[in-house]
Amino acid sequence: MADKKPTQKKNALGRGLGALLQDSPEKKQKQDLIPAASSAGIYEIPLSTIQVNPYQPRTHFDKDALQELSESILVQGIIQPITVRKLADDEYQLISGERRFQASKLAGLEKIPAYVRTANDQQMLEMALIENIQRENLNALEIAHSYQRLLAECNLKQEELGDRVGKNRTTVNNYLRLLKLPPDIQAGIRDQVISMGHARALINIEDIDKQLAIFKKTVTEELSVRKVEALVKALNNEDEESENKKAPALDPVRKYEIGKIQQRLANHFGSKVQLKANEKNKGEIKIPFGSASDLNRILEILEII
């Protein structure tokens, strides 16, 4: 069957994972492993010719789980082929399926079934990140780092990112905010010492020392998410009362209105926004950011960049 050439060059970025896996930029014929008409085929490839994925978003593989997968492969074989891209003759690079790849090596296999795709570095990064996110086997911190890399390295905007991973902007923001937490708390998320719910509560504490204190209390006493939320709320109320003592009291109705506006701003920007106003309707809005990428995220929401 003759190959069908596209009428115009398509930009693979800006589409979903399926489109990226099916379409590829034009290559010289000598670089093609298989005709385009056969691109959906599965091929047996020697494990020794496959390089690991340099864009792999997973940073930790459980050894016991890997051993169990290896034993399953010995009995059942590879049920889902891995996906690779061709670099040269007898040289491939993993796009997705590193657990299956590593477990197959552990099982002593010589070959593995694989889909062969053509992709440049940026497409490969996006495919690897989205494939892992869609499998829902990353911890919350790995998902946050994957989102950040998609924004920074694939030049995606937050709305585009949400479309790619099937999440709304608020959900994406909640994950990105995890990256503002101190290293000790991030390690707790990574090691599943605390859950995403615990982390989201801790984010609402501005003082790092207080964050770490409640984090340690949470781990030591094995506090529930609801208990941590209550502690954080009580702590923030204490801080707010302390601030209020320094300033003239606002009318209760006015205070309630300002509080509602502040909450709406916080939800919109995915950050704990501070809104202050006096009885003369003068005040300020503070939007904190934790990094250059976080600042760019806020500027993007403001449509400044």
From TrEMBL:
The keyword DNA-binding applies. InterPro entries: Chromosome_partition/occlusion (IPR050336), HTH_ParB/Spo0J (IPR041468), ParB/RepB/Spo0J (IPR004437), ParB/Sulfiredoxin_sf (IPR036086), ParB_dimer_C (IPR057240), ParB_N (IPR003115). Residues 43-133 form the ParB-like N-terminal domain. Gene3D superfamilies: 1.10.10.2830, 3.90.1530.30. GO terms for cellular component: chromosome. Residues 1-30 are annotated as: Disordered. Keywords: Chromosome partition, DNA-binding. GO terms for molecular function: DNA binding. It comes from the Bacteria. GO terms for biological process: chromosome segregation; positive regulation of sporulation resulting in formation of a cellular spore. Belongs to the ParB family. This is ParB-like partition protein.
